[in-house]
């Protein structure tokens, strides 16, 4: 191969890698990515509870013919209490997780103080009123002294992100200012010493956000939650979780992975917050028996775009097993198939490899576009149920489709059909890659 071509390729890859690395190391994006990774087990628990409560223990379902429906309704209270401690306090969990990881990324030594300040600030910004229509009444009345679940659940998530980032940033800067620290001497417990050191920063931070909340209410006649939803998260959500925007961001994330930068650099920061919010709203609607609001959500992506791992690489493995004549490719496929069953694609991505291999990067990006588009329209026209359960991303394909849709066997069949079709997306590029590899081997000799 011509050395000048190699050099040009190396320069392009190096520049691309530098840009991707800088983006991945941006402190606020990294904080969000880490925070949502920390928060994910609560989502998984909520997903399992939703599945058990409203599929297995549903009084009108098959279990209602075996066990007294009243008994099932009573048992469901366990799941409801778990949902209250997960789904219904999503925003509080997000506030704490974002604040903590911001402290870690800023090397701040007193994260518990920052977390408490962030939670306090969130409550300051949250109106403690809601409208309630009593049974038999025609007009709603205002109830005060409570925090509505609409603010602590998925709907308030972006206020939680806003508070977790900004309140923590402000608090850390104030805390690092020596002039604002109260020096006390004597044999006192470390916790007391730390609390006095941050006394003034705590007071300033919470007061600043209280003034902000008051100003927003006076100027716009709405709370901060409503303002952020109207001006920021509403428009962004339409872009990121609308089909074109969703496919674009997913494709860019997979393209990054094709150049060795994990796809979470993009999707974990820019996409996952919106997908998680949609997922929680779907689970809540499913639990309440109301219309499911979203097609695209976190579990939808995991179910239809991560079959065998990123890029739906289970289809590539099948293509290798059936159509490849290269022993080394089949050997890599054998090593990669067990992790792929649990949607772990790193062995095939870095072993075959797919990374820095343009022949396979192309279908690696195209395959999820195809599968997500098919699944989207299949859901839209009612061929399969909406995805309503957050399942672990390691759930094997086919099983994942059944569970994520609340037990819809048609979703499992659709996964099988998508995988079969995706094999033929990978196949021509696999053949090209085999020829390129064979020719490259001859040139080396």
Q: How would you portray this structure in words?
A:
- With 445 residues, the chain is mostly helical.
- It has two domains: 17-26 and 241-445, no CATH class; 92-236, no CATH class.
- The protein contains 19 helices and two strands.
- The chain has helices at residues 3-25, 27-56, 69-84, 90-105, 111-125, 149-152, 157-175, 190-197, 199-220, 224-240, 243-258, 264-288, 298-305, 314-323, 327-341, 346-351, 358-380, 399-404, 409-444, and strands at 129-132, 141-144.
- A two-stranded antiparallel ribbon has the order 1-2.
- The longest helix has 36 residues, at 409-444.
- The chain is globular, with a radius of gyration of 25 Å.
- Mean pLDDT is 85; it is low at 440-445.
Kindly estimate the percentage of residues that lie in beta strands according to DSSP.
Answer: under 5%
Distance, first to last CA: 12 Å
Please compute the radius of gyration using only Cα atoms. Answer: 25 Å
Secondary-structure element sequence? HHHHHEEHHHHHHHHHHHHHH
Oligomeric state of this protein: single chain
Strand order of the biggest β-sheet: 1-2
Mean pLDDT: 85
- Tell me the count of domains: 2
Tell the overall outline: globular
User: By helix and strand content, what is the structural category?
Assistant: mainly alpha
Q: Give the proportion of residues in helices.
A: over 70%
Tally of helical segments: 19
Quantity of strands, as a count: 2
Low-confidence stretches: 440-445
Main beta-sheet strand count, sense and barrel state: 2 strands, antiparallel
């Amino acid at each position: 191969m011509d050395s000048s071509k190699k050099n040009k390729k190396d320069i392009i890859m190096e520049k691309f890698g530098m840009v991707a690395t800088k983006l991945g190391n941006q402190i606020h994006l990294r904080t969000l990515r880490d925070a949502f990774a920390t928060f994910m087990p609560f989502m998984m628990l909520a997903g399992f509870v939703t599945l058990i409560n409203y599929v297995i223990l549903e009084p009108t379902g098959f279990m209602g013919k075996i066990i007294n429906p009243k008994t099932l309704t009573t048992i469901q209270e366990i799941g409801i209490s778990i949902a209250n401690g997960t789904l219904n306090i999503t925003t509080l969990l997000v506030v704490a997780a974002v604040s903590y990881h911001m402290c870690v990324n800023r090397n701040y030594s007193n994260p518990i103080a920052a977390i408490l300040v962030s939670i306090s600030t969130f409550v300051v910004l949250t109106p403690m009123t809601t409208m309630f229509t009593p049974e038999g009444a025609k007009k709603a009345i205002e109830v005060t002294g409570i925090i509505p679940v609409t603010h602590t659940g998925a709907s308030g998530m972006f206020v939680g992100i806003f508070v977790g980032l900004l309140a923590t940033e402000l608090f850390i800067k104030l805390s690092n200012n020596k002039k604002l620290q109260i020096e006390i001497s004597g044999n006192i417990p470390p916790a007391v010493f730390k609390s006095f050191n941050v006394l003034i920063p705590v007071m300033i931070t919470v007061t600043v956000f209280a003034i902000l909340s008051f100003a927003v209410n006076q100027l716009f006649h709405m709370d901060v939650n409503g303002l952020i939803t109207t001006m920021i998260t509403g428009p962004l959500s339409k872009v990121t979780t609308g089909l074109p925007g969703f496919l674009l961001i997913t494709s860019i994330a997979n393209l990054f992975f094709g150049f060795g930068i994990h796809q979470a650099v993009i999707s974990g920061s820019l996409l996952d917050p919106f997908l998680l919010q949609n997922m929680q709203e779907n689970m809540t609607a499913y639990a309440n028996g109301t219309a499911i609001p979203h097609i695209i959500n976190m579990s939808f992506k995991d179910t239809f775009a991560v079959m065998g791992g990123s890029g739906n690489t289970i289809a590539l493995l099948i293509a290798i097993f059936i159509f490849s004549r290269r022993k080394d490719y089949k050997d890599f496929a054998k090593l990669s198939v067990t992790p792929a069953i649990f949607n772990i694609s790193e062995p095939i991505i870095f072993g075959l490899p797919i990374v820095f291999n343009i022949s396979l990067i192309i279908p690696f990006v195209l395959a999820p576009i195809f599968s997500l588009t098919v699944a989207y329209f299949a859901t839209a026209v009612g061929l399969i149920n909406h995805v309503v359960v957050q399942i672990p991303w390691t759930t094997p394909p086919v099983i994942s489709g059944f569970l994520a849709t609340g037990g819809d066997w048609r979703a499992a069949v659709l996964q099988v059909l998508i995988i079969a079709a995706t094999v033929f997306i990978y196949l021509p590029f696999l053949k090209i890659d085999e020829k390129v590899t064979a020719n490259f081997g001859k040139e080396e000799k």
